[in-house]
Write a structure and sequence with these properties.
With about 350 residues, the chain is α/β, with parallel strands linked by helices. It contains twelve helices and eleven strands. About 35% of the residues lie in helices and about 15% in strands. The strands form two sheets. A seven-stranded mixed sheet has the order 1-7-6-5-4-2-3, with helices on both faces. A four-stranded antiparallel sheet has the order 8-9-11-10, with helices on one face. Strand 8 and strand 9 form a beta hairpin. The protein binds pyridoxal-5'-phosphate. The site of pyridoxal-5'-phosphate has 13 residues, from helix 4.
Length: about 350
């Protein structure tokens, strides 16, 4: 499979915007090239369009070469760019699992690309044959979210790898929750599969949802295409600086605490009569099935605890998604649930 043949013609032919900083890349000097205000207030200069310093730091943490890293304004930017680079509107299509993260569909609709869903099994496992059977010669992207939102389970690494090996298109594996998973990341397979895109984010484990920083890892050819199509200055100076500083911190203690809390909460919930089922979780949330989801959801809001009602989506009848909070927050949830009388 040649990745070049999957790219939209207009994107392959695109001459990207050339920034002032593309033409001159030295460090010291008098910058009279970008029509900026010359008086320093920390923000008067345009940001580095290639986020070089940030990519070096992220590359070290993830063990990935900088040419294989794309930094976006949230994972949402990377998702949208996959469509814009590979999918010809009203011609190509995309296949994904259901239920899963909603942005894959929204980005498909915005880009006028047909979105095909393959339902997971009752136990939220994935039938690879069904998934591949939904693809055809116009399927450019296959989205797999693992650990999956909202079902909280991971799909076996070997199973995902086999899909990447078989599919004649781009497989996008969204690993937004990988830090909470017992399963390894697909990042180590990047060199082996030129059609693999791995998405990660700083919004969950890293605690930077407010800064908006998403990551795509792929073969350098795919990264170069995404870089050409993105807005030149997609990550602003403030975000680049704060993210760089935050990445110097060690989050392992927090991660351990969240995982321990998840397992403790799952255990407590599974012993409650009002909870019909607690799904095993490889993420920082648990999915539970209850008798009357809407009623319980409203009751919890009355008690000041907001969870996510997922009961209206496919295969999630009666399901609420609960993010793991601090020990105190989780205890408040348990106390409220213990008081709840299921009529
Ligand atoms: C939360 C989440 C993201 C993160 O999106 P950002 O735009 O990076 O904040 C990505 N994918 C999934 C499946 C998520 O649940």
């Amino acid at each position: 499979m040649k990745i070049e043949n999957l790219v939209r013609k207009n994107i392959a032919a695109l001459t990207p915007y050339s920034t002032a900083r593309d033409e001159y890349q030295g460090e010291i000097g008098i910058y009279l090239d970008a029509n900026e205000n010359p008086y320093d207030n920390s923000y008067n200069r345009y940001p580095d369009p290639y986020q070089k310093r940030l990519k070096e730091t992220i590359g070290k943490i993830k063990g990935v070469e900088t040419e294989r890293i794309f930094i976006g304004n949230g994972s949402d930017e990377a998702i949208d760019l996959c469509y814009r680079v590979f999918c010809e509107p009203s011609v190509d299509n995309v296949v994904s699992i259901a239920p899963t993260y909603g942005m894959y569909r929204v980005a498909a609709e915005i880009n006028n690309v047909e979105f095909r869903e393959v339902l997971l099994e009752e136990d939220y496992s994935l039938d690879s044959k069904k998934l591949l059977a939904a693809t055809d010669s116009n399927t450019k992207l296959l989205f797999i979210c693992s650990p999956n939102n909202p079902t909280a389970n991971s799909f076996p690494l070997k199973q995902i790898e086999a899909i990447v090996a078989k599919f004649n298109g781009i497989v996008v594996v969204d690993e937004a929750y990988i830090e909470f998973s017992t399963q390894k990341s697909l990042l180590t397979l990047l060199g082996k599969y030129p059609n693999l895109v791995v998405l990660q984010t700083l919004s969950k484990a890293w605690g930077m949802a407010g800064l908006r920083l998403g990551l795509a890892f792929a073969d350098s050819y795919i990264i170069s295409l995404m870089t050409r199509v993105k807005y030149p200055y997609n990550i602003n100076v403030v975000t680049q600086k704060i993210v760089y500083d935050q990445l110097q911190k060690n989050i392992s203690t927090q991660l351990k605490e969240i995982i321990a809390q998840r397992d403790k909460l799952s255990d407590k919930l599974s012993k409650m009569a009002i909870i019909e089922h607690v799904y095993p979780s490889d993420a920082n949330f648990v999915l539970v099935r209850v008798n009357n989801a809407k009623k319980l959801y409203n009751y919890l809001i009355g008690g000041g605890v907001i969870v996510r009602d997922r009961s209206k989506i496919k295969l999630c009848q009666g399901a609420l998604r609960i993010t793991i909070g601090t020990p105190m927050e989780n205890q408040r949830l348990i106390t409220l649930l213990e008081k709840y009388k299921n009529e």
